[in-house]
Specification:
Shape of chain A: globular
Helix content of chain B: 10-25%
Number of domains of chain B: 2
Radius of gyration of chain B: 19 Å
Largest interface: A-B, 14 and 16 residues
Order of helices and strands of chain A: EEEEHEHHE
CATH class of the largest domain in chain B: Alpha Beta
Largest sheet of chain B: 8 strands, mixed
Distance between the termini of chain A: 15 Å
Low-confidence stretches of chain A: none
Oligomer: heterodimer
Strand content of chain B: 35-45%
CATH topology of the largest domain in chain B: Phosphoenolpyruvate Carboxykinase, domain 3
Strand content of chain A: 25-35%
Order of helices and strands of chain B: EEHEEEEEEHEEHEEEEEHEHE
CATH architecture of the largest domain in chain B: Alpha-Beta Complex
Distance between the termini of chain B: 59 Å
Shape of chain B: globular
Mean pLDDT of chain A: 88
Number of helices of chain A: 3
């Protein structure tokens, strides 16, 4: 499987309430309330850390979940947010690559 | 030289005065009746609306288009077009005859002006009691009009449908509006600091519960009236909603449709 890099879009407004990130697209006003795991991925979406590294280094130890399950859930989350242009997704670090679509 | 007669009427909602200019005296009379409690005679205007009524305009459709481009607000529906320059304080409106189309334009201009100034219109009833404003938000059927109908004599209804929230001197105020729902009656033209935002649901008994901020933000954003896909204004609205929730208690009000529910609201 190819590598996946993710970066937060600039076209969003966000606010951390408790342990959950509230994110709204300023383009279409779509609103997302991210749970703790999703918030952790969101905060790690710097465009240069590979998604698998985020899962292995942050999600698995924090939530005691196996890497395969965690990656499956993370990809699902990334796919959902990228469909609303809230997350940018790429097969290369995002400062040097065109974004790609994750197959449904 | 334009020899057509010129008529005007002032309408002030939420402290935002609009001076409507028209060549139709009958339209002026209709507005005076429709906005009876909100007619202003001060001559002061934040916006001047030049209204042209179209003899044959299509029926209003559901689709509203609101665009912000180069500082100009463009609002369109099947039965009207409005171009508003907020910096100049002017708007040109072409609309179907009567108050219905005009009222829609007025509401939308208020949503845009408020978003820019740290306020919002909310799908909610509101009432003033003991000098404080209580806002009751909910989807259609949640009980906004029911609650307004049962209000005791010492409560002043600001609206049963569209609540007007503005930021004034660092605090949030609720203002009365003429934007009525099923009650078909304008609210009182007054204002007060917001005490509590209550999200409504009907149930077998009356009770008030705490709401977590995440759910409150989600429900607040869902019920704010806003139509423009403008990143700048949407960002401001998001910030305003968060500031509002930081300073105003939010609760869930479950109630049975009996007047005694008002014993919880004071």
């Amino acid at each position: 499987m190819s590598e996946t890099y993710i970066a937060r879009s600039q076209a969003i407004a966000s606010r951390l309430l408790g342990n959950e990130m509230m994110v709204m697209s300023v383009i279409d006003s779509t609103f997302f309330s991210l749970n703790e795991a999703a918030t952790l991925i969101w905060e790690s979406a710097d465009g240069c850390t590979e998604l698998m590294d985020i899962v292995e280094q942050k999600i698995c130890p924090t939530f005691q979940v196996d890497p395969e399950t965690a990656l499956h859930d993370a990809l699902q989350f990334v796919r959902q947010l990228s469909q609303h242009d809230i997350l940018k997704v790429s097969s290369r670090p995002l400062n040097e690559a065109a974004s790609v679509k994750i197959p449904a | 030289m334009n020899t057509a007669a010129h008529h005007q009427i002032g309408i002030e909602v939420g402290g935002l005065p609009v001076l409507v200019h028209t060549q139709d005296q009958k339209f002026c009379d209709q507005l005076a009746k429709y906005y009876a409690g909100f007619v202003s005679h001060s001559g002061v205007a934040r916006f001047h609306f030049e209204v042209e009524q179209l003899a044959q305009a299509p029926d209003p459709g559901a689709e509203i288009s609101v665009e912000v481009r180069d500082g100009i607000w463009s609002v369109r529906r099947a039965d009207f077009t409005a171009e508003c320059n907020p910096s100049a304080g002017s708007a040109k409106i072409r609309q179907s005859a009567g108050t219905h189309s005009f009222d829609s334009v007025l509401r939308i201009i208020h949503t845009l002006a408020l978003a820019d100034e740290g306020g919002f219109l909310l799908h909610a009833a509101s009432a003033l009691r003991n000098g404080r404003a209580f806002i009751f938000s909910g989807v259609s059927g949640a009980g906004k009009t029911t609650l307004a109908r049962m209000a005791p004599s010492d409560a002043t209804i600001l609206t049963d449908e569209v609540s007007y929230v503005r930021r004034l001197d660092g605090r949030f105020e609720a203002c009365g509006t003429p934007f009525a729902g099923e009650l078909a009656r304008a609210g009182a033209n007054t204002s007060a600091p917001v005490d509590t935002l209550l999200f409504l649901q009907q149930g077998p008994e009356n009770r008030i519960e705490e709401m977590n901020k995440q759910e409150a933000l989600q429900r607040l954003l869902r019920n704010i009236l806003f139509f423009a896909a403008d990143p700048g204004l949407v960002s401001k609205l998001f910030e305003t909603a968060n500031k509002f929730l930081e300073s105003i208690p939010v609760r869930r009000l479950t109630f049975r449709p009996e007047p005694d529910v008002w014993s919880l609201i004071q």
